[in-house]
């Protein structure tokens, strides 16, 4: 697909540099795309069209002078509605949140803006990011771009859907247990959860002590470009050279010589056969690219599943703390799923919570030992396909088994599309030790190059008549 809206951020910047594209042209195309498709999928909850077009005009004038302000100058970026963007409200999917506009950007948004990116809108989320589907009383349900009867996953579903459908090439999201990787998996895009705290979150976006900010994009290179902008000083970028820096450097160095551990289905996880087949085929690619692939048990993960309450205890307690100071009238406005989660957390005693924190520490230490023997670990991103809209089935209410442990261990993990399970994409998850973000991105890029371009969903999806989008 050669439409402007389906170009990557790297391709847009190249077009701006060559003056074959303009930031104004691109922003107009993105906003037009949102007008056409968002009524079907409900990926956005707020837009700043006037501010976006003004910023695009400024970027265009800089490019005309050959004076871009940064490596992403003029590139549109959406932001999950858990993260502050100046001039837009941060509602967090909640009817209890203030509708007032933010006076300042969150740190990661400010860094993207300094790199020239244009934050133009907020994407939908479950309330406070509480679950792995994207629906809430404030904004209703967000739909999968491949089949609108299904969920795209969550809680960063709006970001994944926006990127998949060409409603902006980049989105900044959050991941507290899989909230970047799961919707990326089910929407057919790239979702990267960096090492914990690598991307500055600010106090509001990191209140769970598990969530990490990261990119959702259509290509691994774009994810690296976003990470560069959010973690590297402006002095690392040399205007006019096109020279990659930070996480973009060495991205195409391949995986030859790497030791890659492969675990198809850890104990306690039943992976759907078609997903296992697609992921297994993707893993074979690494061997063909020169890596040594070893199928092995992962003892720390076995221990994690043996005590499956590590994540759920912390998650529920954090949400109990989030709502405990609310007035009774505000609590009646909450998503019933969130209320139930908070009620569970309120009944957990201090000793149980501390035990979960100690288990979290032990898991992190064990994974450090594991990665002394292997460079990377690969697994499926999720064990099954997405549920129907709306709601979250009971069998998916526990902590996501293949993703949440990465948040507990603080390690970087990326989901890359590796085919289809039925009519919906599925993903390969690549995991590294803490601080090995560049290596994880490099491996994902090697697989992406070998796989070839991943198809985009059609832009003419009908709205099914089963449920209304509005709450």
TrEMBL record:
Its EC number is 6.3.5.6, 6.3.5.7. Keywords: Ligase. PROSITE patterns: AMIDASES (PS00571). Pfam families: Amidase. The keyword Methyltransferase does not apply. It is an enzyme of class 6 (ligase). Residues 26-441 form the Amidase domain. The keyword Repeat does not apply. It comes from the Bacteria. One of its GO terms (molecular function) is asparaginyl-tRNA synthase (glutamine-hydrolyzing) activity. Belongs to the amidase family. This is Aspartyl-tRNA(Asn)/glutamyl-tRNA(Gln) amidotransferase subunit A.
């Amino acid at each position: 697909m050669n439409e402007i809206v389906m170009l990557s951020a790297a391709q847009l910047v190249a077009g701006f540099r060559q003056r074959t594209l303009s930031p104004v042209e691109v922003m107009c195309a993105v906003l037009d795309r949102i007008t056409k498709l968002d009524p079907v999928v409900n990926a956005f909850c707020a837009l700043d069209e006037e501010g976006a077009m003004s910023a695009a005009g400024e970027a265009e004038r800089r490019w005309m002078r050959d004076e871009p302000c940064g490596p992403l100058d003029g590139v549109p970026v959406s932001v999950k509605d858990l993260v502050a963007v100046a001039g837009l409200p941060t509602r967090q999917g909640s009817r209890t949140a203030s509708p007032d506009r933010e006076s300042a950007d969150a740190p990661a948004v400010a860094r993207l803006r300094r790199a020239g990116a244009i934050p133009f809108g907020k994407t939908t989320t479950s309330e406070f990011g509480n679950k792995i589907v994207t629906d809430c009383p404030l904004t209703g349900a967000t739909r999968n771009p491949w089949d609108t009867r299904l969920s795209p996953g969550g809680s960063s579903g709006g970001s994944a859907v926006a990127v998949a459908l060409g409603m902006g090439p980049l989105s900044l999201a959050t991941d507290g247990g899989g909230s970047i990787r799961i919707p990326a998996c089910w929407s057919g895009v790239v979702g990267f959860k960096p090492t914990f705290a690598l991307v500055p979150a600010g106090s509001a976006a990191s209140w769970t002590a598990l969530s990490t900010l990261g990119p959702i994009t259509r290509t691994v290179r774009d994810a690296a470009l976003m990470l560069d902008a959010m973690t590297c000083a402006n002095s690392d970028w040399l205007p006019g050279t096109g020279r990659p820096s930070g996480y973009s450097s060495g991205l195409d160095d391949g995986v030859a010589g790497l030791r890659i551990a492969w675990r198809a289905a850890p104990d306690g996880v039943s992976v759907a056969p078609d997903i296992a087949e697609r992921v297994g085929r993707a893993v074979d690619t690494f061997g063909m690219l020169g890596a040594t692939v070893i199928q092995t048990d992962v003892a720390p993960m076995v221990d994690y599943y043996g005590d499956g309450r590590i994540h759920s205890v912390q998650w529920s307690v954090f949400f109990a703390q989030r709502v405990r100071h609310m007035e009774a009238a505000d609590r009646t406005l909450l998503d019933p799923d969130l209320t139930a989660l908070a009620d569970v957390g309120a009944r957990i005693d201090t000793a149980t919570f501390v035990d979960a924190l100690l288990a979290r520490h032990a898991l992190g230490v064990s994974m450090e030992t594991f990665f002394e023997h292997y460079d990377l670990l690969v697994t499926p991103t999720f064990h099954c396909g997405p549920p129907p809209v709306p709601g979250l089935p009971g069998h998916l209410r526990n902590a996501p088994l293949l993703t949440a442990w990465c948040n507990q261990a603080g390690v970087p993990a990326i989901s890359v599309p590796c085919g289809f399970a039925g009519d919906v994409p599925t993903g390969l998850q690549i995991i590294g030790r803490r601080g090995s973000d560049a290596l994880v991105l490099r491996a994902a890029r090697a697989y992406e190059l070998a796989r070839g371009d991943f198809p985009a969903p059609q832009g003419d999806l009908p709205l099914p008549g089963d449920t209304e989008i509005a709450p």
